[in-house]
Design a protein that fits this description.
This protein is of the alpha/beta class. Helices cover about 40% and strands about 15% of the residues. Its cofactor is pyridoxal 5'-phosphate.
Amino acid sequence: MKHPLSDRINSLPVSQTLAMAAKARELRAEGKDIIGLSLGEPDFNTPDFIKDAAIEAINQNYNSYTPVDGYAELKEAICVKFKRDNNLVYKPSQIVVSTGAKQSIANIAQVLLNPGDEVLLPAPYWVSYSAIATLCEATYVEIPSSIENDFKITPEQLEASITPKTKMIFFNSPNNPSGTIYSETEYRALAAVLEKHPRVFILSDEIYEHVNYDSKPFSFASIESMYDRTITVNGLAKAFAMTGWRVGYIGAPEWIAKACTKMQGQITSGTNCIAQRAAITAVLAPVSKIQFMVDEFKTRRDIIIGLLREIDGFKVNVPEGAFYVFPDVSDFFGKTINGVTINNASDFSLFILEKANVATVTGDAFGAPNCIRLSYAASELQIREATKRIKEALG
């Protein structure tokens, strides 16, 4: 029976990262020993100093509705953080706190995009970017890259992709799924192109900002000519191991911030009160308080890269941030292994799940059909066992 669902929901794809996680849970329920390298979630607990702030907020009886755009104290703390970490000067009126950075991004898209507008997505890109554009009845345009250039686009590619319909471009550095970090020089070169197209707005997703190893990320809005049309998105999920707390925020031109507040006021209203009080402590904390997690991620990165390079057919680069590795597996396409023909990355990812009991995510979901994503937000023991199983399954 076909249910009378809206065209809007029928046009949306299922999140491939969540779908793979659900499939892994299903197989575990059947008794299979599945190692999950599909979800982008730190395997650390939220640091105690943040949990203590939440407990204190409960004891102080924070339990009422919150302002739609966030507590004033939190917005002021975010302004301090932006200046300290990114050399960005925002006023509290330019800050909007939301229920996760995903809502922040959805708000921005909803208030800026009209049907028929084009959104440029440098590939690979986070799976929800394209779906959010679709939900706004906009068209997303992928700008391809490859592992040979560390998954970065060039100014020439950007210039060639801009049309009279282009309204936005989404940047994400450090990048999910590739771990790529654009340098200041690279971003300034892209900004030089965008300076010629003043109607194009920039969404700069910096959620993995603090999970960097070899180079400090650069905020796009700190380029003077880009400040007035860049929306900086950040949150607490990744660096602070607070995925379930659901706190994201933006720094934006005031008129965009007001529009996002208006939109949010009709959807979810204000973010959870206890999470916000804890967030004040988190954003004001020195980065050194969470460095132990970043150091551990770097150790795991080096381990998984070394192990994957031992598998014939895997092409691997060195991600500079986030906690993913994004190998090119196109060497396996068209081959039959253990009776299974692999035609694309989706086939490969499914093969690894069924034959090696390791959950990954196909690169098709990220606009990079030659790759798969593996998260190393897992224990060293799990990483070593997972790569061992993959190598054995590929024979």
